[in-house]
Amino acid sequence: MSYTLGIDTSNYATSLAVFDTAGEVVCAKKRFLPVKEGQLGLRQSDALFHHTAALPGMLAELAAECDLTQIAAVGVSEKPRPAEGSYMPCFLAGVSAGQAFALGRGTPLVRTTHQQGHAAAALFAAGGERLFREKVLLFHISGGTTDLLLCDQVRRIELLGTSSDLYAGQAVDRLGVKLGFAFPAGAEVSRLAAECAEEIRPKSSVKGTACSLSGLENQCAALLAAGKSPAYVCKYCLLCVADTVVRMTRAALAQRPGLPVVCAGGVMSSGIIRDWVQRRLPAVQFVPAQYASDNAIGVSILAAREAGLWLK
Question: Where would one find the signal peptide in this protein (predicted)?
């Protein structure tokens, strides 16, 4: 028996996970970064501080549930995307902790990215080993991305389409904070949206595999000003994101027919979005929130593979 440890320190949450190289997630921990009421996220210096403060205690919690002496490799996300120039200081906290753990244990350190971690977690939840062996169309939709990716074994990731302006998660969070919810607000926006029984026709702006979401924030503000209920506006916002996913997916499948489509990222945890998309594109795969939102599960899985301990 051997385990791998995954560490991810994004701008939203501190995440740890342990993966059994026999092919099972053993344990996963996540702690959202504290954001003051009314604010839309943290400065990088504050995020780095909170990660550094949280990691020792979270590792102690992990040690109480898992035998960390069985860790055979450590994985850590060192930057947002596998692209030149991609950088955020918040990931330094995870790199420091991961490197210290690996050196102390004499185990390999596998460096990956936040986006590849999202991809690995989603593919594992959707298809286990199978999806790691083929090309997949992957949506990564969160507070910092609205990316449609061609994912080849999670080693090579090609950007096929994205937003030209606002990201989907930004639109959702800005609406949620405007309504008084804590940041990140996606779960509360989705909960409130589920209370709206009205039929809504969303308006999305998509050209091929590219989209624009800057108008969505203004549309939501206009609907609230016109007297629409918060539940209606939340549902409208999420359905606009869902319709964007549908139209971008159709454009991508027209160019690359037959590829599996998997959705990742915190925004894609919404049942409102999932139901809208799957009614129109039943083959699109969504995964449980634990694997869709920020997590270290994917990083722990990639550590196992790259260290030659899984999927040999």
Answer: none
282 and 297: one domain?
A: no
Q: Which domain holds residue 23?
A: 3-121+293-306
Query: How many CA atoms lie less than 13 Å away from 285 in the CB half-sphere?
Result: 19
**Largest distance between two CA atoms of the chain:** 62
Q: Using alpha carbons, select from 3, 2, 13 the residue that is nearest to residue 296.
A: 13
> Tens of pLDDT along 99-117?
999 999 999 999 999 999 9
Give the per-residue pLDDT at 62: 97
Based on the fold, state whether residues 170 and 84 are members of the same structural domain. Answer: no
What is the total count of domains within the chain? 2
- Does this model's pTM top 0.85? My answer is yes
Give me the pLDDT at residue 187, please: 95
Q: Please indicate, yes or no, if residue 23 is contained in any of the structural domains.
A: yes
Q: Which residue has the tokens 């924030």?
A: 217
Q: Determine the pLDDT at residue 132.
A: 95
So what's the pLDDT on residue 291?
A: 97
Q: Is residue 312 part of a domain?
A: no
Given pLDDT bands bounded at 50, 70 and 90, which one contains residue 57? very high
Does 226 lie in the same domain as 148? yes
Do 107 and 145 reside in the same domain of the chain? no
Contacts of 258 (CB under 8 A, 6+ apart): none
